[in-house]
Amino acid sequence: MKKKSFWLISLLLVFSMFLAACNSGNETSGNEKDGDKEEANTGEPVEGGKVTLAVTTAPEGVFEYAYYRSAVDAQILEFTGGSIYQVNDDLEYEPDLASWEISEDKLTYTFKFKEGVKWHNGEELTVEDWQFALETMADPAYDGERFNYVEGIKGAKAKKDGKADSIEGIKVIDDYTIAITFEEMKLNNLENLWSYPMPKKHFEGIAVADLGESEEVRTNPVGLGPFKVKSVKPGEYVELEKFADYYKGEPKLDNIVVKVIDASVANGALQNGEVDIMEVIPNQVEELEKMDHISVEETTGVGYSYIGLRFGHRDQEARTNKDDIDKFKNKDLRHALLYAIDRQAMIDAFLAGKGKVFNTVIPSTFWIAADESELNQYEYNPEKAKELLEGAGYKDVDGDGFVEDPDGEPFSISFGHYAGNATFEGRSQAIIQSWNDIGVKTELATGSLIEFNLYNDMKTEDDEALEAFFGSWSTGSDPDPSGLWANNAEWNFGRWVNEENDKLLNDALSEKAFDKDYRKEVYVEWQKLFNEEIPAIPLWENLDLYGINKRLQGVHINAVGFQTNTHEWYVTE
Known about the structure:
20% strand; eleven-stranded mixed β-sheet; alpha+beta; 27% helix; 21 strands; 16 helices
């Protein structure tokens, strides 16, 4: 099929699906008559009230920070949990549950906790709850994915390897004071330190190996946040109720319901008041902006999308990545795959223009982002892609229209994409067709889009079907890319290993990096390395979009999300 024809059909398919979905939602809402729009409510705050947050993916139901995996569970935890620190609008870390002092050698941080903070079960928060969390995550039996947040503490690796019973670098001074000593000085030791206490008494008697599946995590969680879990109906909703003893003040709302809805009826649900707030996709915005009672908020976030390439597998026991797969070792092949994709056309087609092509994996929000003039741009050029392939020895030997590898063997790519809204099918097919058009035979892994949670499992387990895979990532507030791209990072799902990569990432966290100019210089060099090597294919950085019913007030949105100080949310009707 010719590429232009494919794009036309793809676009028509996506937009017809989307318009059908939106029209369906409007027909059931009954809120618009003869072109008139419902007037926005601008009344005074009412006492109590309930708000519905809509999500299009069901939560896994893991309500403990140390074990969650899904973005929806993370949103629920933002209502129910509490952290040592918080992040302000300038992406700076500020004290929350605790303040801290740093030793002269910058190896020991002494934390002073607030007194009188209550867990949802009425117990008082002490430093033992945080110590319990850190020790749990360093336990050999811990089967969560976040040991990297404690491994920098002195002695944490020894405990993880079964060589110690406790973490040497943790010293409890009193109920509200605790000192953490790190193995080495790193600029972002604080940012990389696990910040969420766990209710020690709540988990008393449960083996670490059983914690993740326990009722205390799944159905009867205890947190520190402004809301607590009231009821759960798997696959449908999680209802939260206010926690009157919240340490920042009693929440203004009585309840928040996190409700699972089909993406195809999202606009209709916002239109008819069934939903008060939700993240929206770009193609919803135009219609939502016509609704007087809905506010569409847009911000440049810290998320981006990319295509991962498989270089190897992870040795989970040794906590290292092994680059033992040769398929994508040729750099010209990787460059060709990037030149083959019309990224701006994809943004226009599938994101309604709400995105920005970028050539690194550092969102422009961050002060360390390299200027585009310092990076290769990889503008869409399928002819250049074909030239690179031929020069690298990828040629069509048998005349079937697809290249063989330099050894004359058949070459193909199994590309994976997770299931979701109506645009995902078109997006995945556009990428597949782009590579087929330059002669690289590409097929959809498993033959269809993959359920999101299963997809995450496949990435974690280095499933052979995911030779290349679509990914979206939110960096959080720390600009350091080590968590996803360091040689042995657990979330380095492509298992890319490169000596210069680790050297630069370590230099950017060294003592010299306390000089901000030096740190940026190193990160720019790292971005140049990534931009030249292309161990993954950067696509675009995302805009964060939210649809909010104007009856809901007090929502504060910044680059890292919409759930700052949710105890201050209120409704006007």
